[in-house]
Design brief:
Two copies of one chain form a homodimer. Chain A is α+β, with helices and mostly antiparallel strands. Helix content of chain A is 41%, strand content 20%. In chain A, the strands form three sheets. An eight-stranded mixed beta sheet of chain A has the order 1-5-6-11-10-9-7-8. In chain A, α5 packs across α11 (240-258), α8 (192-206) packs antiparallel against α9 (212-222) and α10 (228-235) runs antiparallel to α11. Chains A and B meet through α1, β1, β2, β3 and α4 of A and α1, β1, β2, β3 and α4 of B.
């Protein structure tokens, strides 16, 4: 038979078992953190009618979307988790209770050219809070607070959630008389990190023909190094939108502190604009302080209307999305995964040393009932191969069960890390292993 | 703007929040049970090159497979979790340690006509153990033992794992001189449950032209009501394949008992044939004893070679697949979900009764740190609306935080179930709630 060459599509994720353990551990901790904030889990379909997925239409996203036909139906595969959420909320409006808080950790697909840290199949972890007719500003603080707890539970320490409010930017443009160029200005300001102050100033002046006064006020605002509320104060009272944005920023800041988020992990950053059309208030970006070059690993913000394509109901929301596959790629690349976590598929390997394996079967059953992840090595191989199986998989404990042990109702346990070997009653050793495994399980997937 | 009608594709799964809680709880318990048996989690891509997904080719499956083109590449979406596993093992052969035990809980897609309990997008939960060159029979007992523990952890009691061995069937056909018709005979025998003994006998005689002696021996064998090892013993010593099958069945039975699986939950059933080409030894089916009409909810068996399309290496395996979406559908339909589980998105709703919400923010933070899933109701609504929010979402505890409470450093907790209301110090009440919530969390998703 002609053989097919086994391969995985470029840009698609397929992790080796140990990597998968880290990834799943992260996903589980994210689920737990989001659950603590009262977000309910959703799991929306990966496919929808093309009309739904492409409701927004046009541009790069549409080109990158995977589409297909089945019978007469035009289908498309989701490129994010917001599009399915919008449909879900519109479709189930009467059955949901608002404000509606959901999280979803799921795959999305974009047929873009795969490159370093960019994937065609990738996980996102999203939280959103959707209001019905209105949504209090406290929610804008809950989102980064949930994110903070989430990252901390992963073991991440050196990150910073940067927060701004689009209303202050829009208001400032009105005050400076450059509202007609606001989209172009925001796009440039968003690049500040990449191009630096001088290039930004030059572009604002030359390309957008702003006056020197306008440029200098804008630059002063977005690069202000002192307390941002000082410079916000300077403009307050001149423009309603600006004032509302400044008030919202202050409220978010105060609540975030109330939620116990330390100032080392968040910052009001007046330069962040984030997306051009969608966000209307608070915006978020998150960077790894030791790796600014990777950009934002988690972004989001406040939007006026989630489901305008489907309904006239006013459904404002606020949310954030972790690029989980991208984050995982960065953590691996930057050697930030914690080797100390228990990445083996089992806590214990039972090696029967007699032909009759019934004692091993009984012991494994007892161990599993005690919550220990247990394998029995049952293949007919040399002793060395059996022990090396545990070694390769980094299974921390091996139990030998020979005639002597069975006769004496004892077991022999080898600690694969220290090499130490003890023979004693099963009850004592099982309790012993369970305790040690429990402490291994407290390790976080990311090195701090 | 013209509105789009929000809709979900027919046959695609989109659960309401409460349903999703049950489904996720089940998935989590399945993960935990499989982990106890040392299965490592995998998460393979949903798409692959069409050549890979359709390696087996032909038949109904190929017609039902979703295919698409991106650029010059022919892609297909997986229709099960075995096809991606075969590719994974072939691709990563040198990086895996054998026997390789993996579980995967993931979505698969089949564009078949949606009907009651059949889905186009559905979850499967698979476990497989893959050997390199060989695989001990003990693994054939580990699989149903893991499944037993899995179902028990879900709360399912009235199920039966039915086990047979294809070798006894093949051997019997050789003994009876009907090997040339074995495929057709197996197909008919597989229908025994549906068509009954008389129709089976008639078909065997009339359609397959078996002699009366052949029919009566076959019928006697597959419908034998006594200890199956009695009738197996009657034929033993006449055919090597038969004898091997009978020995394997006995070993599986003995080990299953050793693993603590009671006879109420498994049965050696000589009539099961299961799939026509793929399985070569042990085969499994699982039925709900009170709902035989829904057929097998979990099936699998032993196969000789997982990855023959890719490699000449001999990779025998044994595995089982739970049709999770289908099982969930049946559980809902049969009213078998346990209403007593905590299906709310939060354990506590904090309702601030003052304009300043900082006390509520601080309290919610303390509660979250104590592991309580907490929401703050922050919208400016009438008191009744706030309480009804908790009521609709079945949040078990509501905390009122008014001026008096804040001044006295107390909180008022309302138990939404009993209606009882207590005012006391936060520390005492938080511990109290945490204890009660912990006991609510021990409920299993399925009613016994």
């Amino acid at each position: 038979m002609n053989k097919i060459k086994p391969r995985t599509l470029s840009g698609f994720t397929e992790l080796l078992p140990v990597q998968q353990v880290y990834f799943n551990d992260m996903a589980q901790k994210i689920r737990e953190a989001f659950s603590l904030y009262g977000f309910t889990p959703l799991d929306t379909p990966l496919m929808d009618a093309a009309e739904i997925i492409l409701a927004k239409g046009g541009g790069e996203t549409e080109q990158q979307t995977y589409t297909l036909k089945k019978g007469d139906t035009d289908l498309a595969i989701r490129f994010d988790l917001t599009t399915p959420l919008a449909k879900y909320v519109a479709l189930n409006y009467s059955r949901l209770t608002f404000p509606f808080r959901r999280f979803e950790i799921g795959k999305a697909y974009r047929g873009e050219r795969p490159q370093r840290g960019r994937f065609r199949e990738f996980y996102q972890a999203d939280i959103d809070i959707i209001g019905d007719g209105g949504l209090d500003i406290l929610n804008d603080a809950e989102i980064p607070s949930a994110l903070y707890r989430c990252f901390k539970s992963l073991g991440l320490e050196r990150f910073e959630i940067r927060i701004n409010n689009r209303k202050t930017l829009s208001g400032l443009y009105e005050i400076l008389g450059i509202s007609d160029k606001s989209t172009a200005v925001m796009r440039l300001v968003d690049k500040l990190d990449k191009i630096g102050v001088e290039k930004l100033a030059a572009s604002l002046k030359d390309d957008l023909e702003l006056s020197e006064m306008q440029v200098s006020k804008l630059i002063e605002f977005v690069t202000y190094k002192g307390d941002p509320f000082d410079i916000l104060g300077k403009y307050q009272g001149q423009n309603g939108t600006f004032d509302m944005g400044a008030d919202e920023l202050l409220a978010v800041k105060q609540h975030l502190t109330g939620f116990g988020v330390p100032e080392t992990n968040f910052k009001i950053d007046l330069s962040i604009a984030r997306g051009l059309d969608y966000y209307t208030g608070t915006v978020y970006e998150t960077c790894l302080l030791d790796h600014p070059e990777v950009g934002s690993i988690c972004s989001g913000g406040r939007y006026d209307n989630l489901a305008g394509y489907y309904t006239d109901k006013n459904l404002p929301g606020v949310g954030i999305s972790i690029g989980l596959s991208r984050l995982f790629y960065i953590l691996q690349e930057q050697n930030m995964l914690n080797e100390a976590i228990l990445s083996s598929p089992a806590d214990v390997l039972v090696i029967p040393m007699t032909d009759d394996r019934s004692a091993a079967v009984a012991l494994a059953t007892t161990m599993r009932e005690a919550g220990l992840r247990t394998q029995i090595y049952s293949e007919d191989k040399k002793f060395k191969v059996k022990v090396s199986y545990a070694d390769k998989l980094k299974i921390p404990y091996v139990v030998f069960l020979g005639e002597d042990e069975i006769a004496q109702e004892k077991i022999t346990v080898k600690d694969m890390d220290s090499g130490e070997q003890v023979t004693a009653s099963p009850a004592v050793l099982i309790a012993n292993i369970a305790e040690k495994v429990k402490s291994l399980r407290t390790e976080k997937p990311i090195k701090g």
